[in-house]
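Manganese-dependent ADP-ribose/CDP-alcohol diphosphatase: structure tokens wanted.
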Amino acid sequence: MESKRMEEPYFTFGIIADIQYADMDNRFNYLKTSMRYYRNSLTQLKAAVEEWAMESIKPAFILQLGDIIDGINTKDKSSKTALERVLVEMDKLPIQFHHVWGNHEFYNFSREYLNGSKLNSQARGDRIDRGGGTSENGEFNDESFYAYHFSPCPKFRFLLIDGYDLSPIGREKTSPKYDIALNLLKEKNPNEDLNSPTGLEEVQFVLFNGGISPSQLDWMERVLTSSDEKEENVFVVSHLPVHPDAADPMCLVWNYPEVLSVLQSHPCVVGYLAGHNHEGRYCMDPYGIHHLTFSGVIETPPESRAFGTMYVYEDKMVLKGRGLVEDRTLYYRDPKNKAERH
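Answer:
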């Protein structure tokens, strides 16, 4: 009996990415390389919700890794209707969702709208030292970033970061960050179509990606330093991947080397979870951080699935994947060697 208790996880959580629902017929993606199943993505979500509800160990929460509806909804002004249809399905699960914002959130809605919507899950995070989407008086502040952290269990923390903090699509044109982002993008990408990586040395500098501002990097440093001191295990969560071996290089955060430098300098970081690259990829970097990019629901054939449940233990996390998401056992870096990070 004791051994059985020892095998039980501290907690579990669900993960799903790139639902990109729209009430539209199937069509190829932007690059014409893969089919997108717009209506079926809602069916895929329903299947995930049903399975999570039936699990013997109920997930403590669900991570929704961004791009909840597709930008194509703007063509017939159905963005709000599409979002409501997705949220209705999520609400059938009596478990909290933590939402990340991706490029398709910003194709459909302004940052101010998202801040006041159900996709703003900041209230479910710790209220101490949040990144914040509001100013000190509670009003919306377009210069802030959407980021927060929470601890579902002692010694474990999740840090959600804003990959479109610096982005022309993630900021209003009146925002100073808009000008900074657009100037940087045009400096790195001379193409007329800013979504095209043709001829670029740094192919991540396309319009559908974004960057992390110095202020957000500083905030991440503070949170991770605190977690180091508390000897916590931290999972960093974003829409955009940050490791070249965990995604197509065209899908990375603009300044991913800076972000990686921050993550790798903190022994508390054990994993980085992302979406955006629909085929999904995985790598463990030289510092022992697991970079897991999840397959996108939108490009998952009707006969398959694309979601998972992570089981969190003292020394490892075990992913039970469905369909395109593979099962994985991911051990944390040896605590004795954590101090070797620099």
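The chain has one domain: 2-340. Helices lie at 2-7, 40-54, 79-91, 103-108, 111-115, 176-188, 214-230, 256-264.

Cheers.
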